Amino acid sequence: MKLTVAKLLLKYNLKKKDIAIRRRRTNRPGRVIKVDLHRINQKITAPEVRLVGDNVEIGVYPLRKALAMAEEIGLDLVEISPNASPPVCKILEYKKFLYEQKKREKVLKAKTSKIVIKEIRFGPNTDEHDYEFKKKHAEKFLKEGAKLKAFVFFKGRSIVFKEKGQILLLRLAQDLEELGKVEQMPILEGKKMTIFIAPKKK
Questions:
Q1: 151 closest CA partner among 138, 142, 132
Q2: What is the C-alpha to C-alpha distance for residues 50 and 81, in angstroms, rounded to an integer?
Q3: Whether residue 156 has pLDDT greater than 90
Q4: Is residue 31 predicted with pLDDT exceeding 60?
């Protein structure tokens, strides 16, 4: 039998304040609490700190003294190496420091490009016309900065021509030496013989 709040109160001789009513959850977003990435000023807890930077005399100072120095020039005392003993701090404008840090991270992220791998497939008895056609594609891929994965697929009994496949891949590597550098020499895995060629840095 389902007990209502009123029946529970009556059964156990309780008052409403003695029962915790569970509130229904809502989909409203929670409160966002902004947390500093570094301990600054009064949030630094170490009794003494090592000050570094161009605007101070490098050395170990009592925390009070370091805070007073920062306050005197209207800047923040920022803990940049909390695990050092004593922690390493700098006197600087914290907001400007964060802005420059984000700017550096953005530039670094832009420089770090994804590695794109393009594939080209050959047969062990690839004719000259087909080879030249696929070689042009390989040149295009390397010029665009992609890594090349060229492989010879041995279908059925054509595995007996594995030496032909190796010669073909080595010829391709030689033909592309001005654009790319061999990262992995031809390796036979199952019915595939593969070579990797990376683009040369400009």
A1: 138
A2: 10
A3: no
A4: no
Per the structure, the complete domain to which residue 102 belongs is given by: 41-108
Q: CA angle at residue 174 from 173 to 179, to 5 degrees? A: 70
Q: Which of 110, 65, 125 is nearest to 91 (CA)?
A: 65
104, 121: one domain:
no
Could you give the residue ranges of the DSSP H alpha helices within 1-93?
5-12, 63-72
29 lies in a domain? no
Residue bearing tokens 């940049």: 80
Cα(165)–Cα(160) distance, integer angstroms: 10
- What's the structural domain count of the chain? 2
CB atoms within 10 A of CB 109: 9
For residue 36, give every residue at least 6 positions away whose Cβ sits within 8 Å of its Cβ, in sequence order, or none.
43, 94
What tokens does 37 get?
């990435």
Distances (CA, A) of 192 to 92, 99, 121, 184: 59, 51, 10, 14
Is the pTM here over 0.70, yes or no?
no
